[in-house]
């Protein structure tokens, strides 16, 4: 149980006259409770009252794992044949009565579950939104959280090393993905933080492309975008490498993106804004005439989920502060030609930043 974060939550609840907080996002449940799980379509919920003990509601098949986690309070389970929300309502009434005001994660809770709560507690005020608070709490990482992100970053480095070994003419994107994930699983790394992308040649011109039967070819670039989950924390990194000797055009595009990434990373320091960082990278790419082909934000927060608050994007006046963690990932994507992205996730220090991945960002020729 993350008592420090629960204490911060309860301070917010007291300030906003909230009796009960309902955490519904699985990654946020892990963040507060210490129990990490992917319930899929089943119901996983954490209820934290202003004063009494919390309880965790979980699918029956996960109850023993939840009890074995760092969550030291009651775990209530349900069978697939049971109505989970009928049981949740029963538990809330038994433990806390009818709350006057309940806070929800409004950016996550599905409408059906909201309606069930509203029906069961018609006099309860459900207007309080936990989303901004959770974002604020996750924005600044503790030393322990930073260490977990570093560990996840080191496994991303390992994934690059494995993938680069398999880049050869005639090898498909799917085959390289399979080799990466198989080798990682053999080393005990069970889960990727998002579907691994290996995109060769013109396929890399789609920022979120899907690996397929397309093969690596001589004198083409290959983009690797990947991440792992270690102890509940994510990594996310991108490298673009060359299969054989790259053309001058490919090298030019690569060097522009690398310059943009390095300049933005070097500019990270407390006091600069998210929008200013985006502009630093974007100005480099625009100065070479490729501004229209950098068509996404510069970065995003990272932690227990792959995309967290904040967005590192133009117009965002959020001031960067020590303890924040986010990605810096400019790219150029020329349709039917070439795609390049270079990405690191970084931890902000009082003097600058520290990247979580160590794989070289110079153009590697394989």
From TrEMBL:
<protein>
    <submittedName>
        <fullName>Xaa-Pro peptidase family protein</fullName>
    </submittedName>
</protein>
<feature type="domain" description="Creatinase N-terminal">
    <location>
        <begin position="8"/>
        <end position="137"/>
    </location>
</feature>
<feature type="domain" description="Peptidase M24">
    <location>
        <begin position="149"/>
        <end position="350"/>
    </location>
</feature>
<keyword id="KW-0464">Manganese</keyword>
<dbReference type="Pfam" id="PF01321">
    <property type="entry name" value="Creatinase_N"/>
</dbReference>
<dbReference type="InterPro" id="IPR001714">
    <property type="entry name" value="Pept_M24_MAP"/>
</dbReference>
<dbReference type="InterPro" id="IPR029149">
    <property type="entry name" value="Creatin/AminoP/Spt16_N"/>
</dbReference>
<comment type="similarity">
    <text>Belongs to the peptidase M24B family.</text>
</comment>
<dbReference type="InterPro" id="IPR000994">
    <property type="entry name" value="Pept_M24"/>
</dbReference>
<dbReference type="InterPro" id="IPR036005">
    <property type="entry name" value="Creatinase/aminopeptidase-like"/>
</dbReference>
<dbReference type="InterPro" id="IPR050659">
    <property type="entry name" value="Peptidase_M24B"/>
</dbReference>
<dbReference type="Pfam" id="PF00557">
    <property type="entry name" value="Peptidase_M24"/>
</dbReference>
<dbReference type="InterPro" id="IPR000587">
    <property type="entry name" value="Creatinase_N"/>
</dbReference>
